[in-house]
Amino acid sequence: MPIVENYPDLDALPADADRVFDAASASNGLFLSKAWFGNLADRGLEAPARLRIYGVRDQAGAALSLLLPLRHMTGRFGLRRLEGLANWYSSLFGVVAAPADLQPQRLRQLAHSLAAERPRWDVLDLHPLDPADPLFQPLLDALAAAGMATQRYFCFVNWYLDVAGRSYDDYAASLPSKLRSTLRRKGRQLEKSGRAQFAIVTGDDKADAVEAAIAAYQAVYARSWKSPEPSPEFMPGLIRTCAAHGWLRLGVATVDGNPAAAQLWIVCGGVAAIYKLAYDEQYASLSIGSLLTERLMRHVIDIDKVKEVDYLTGDDAYKRDWMSASRERCGIVAFNLRSPRGLAAAALHLGGARVKAMLRRRRQRAPENA
Question: Locate the BioF2-like acetyltransferase domain: which residues (predicted)?
Answer without folding.
Answer: 177-320
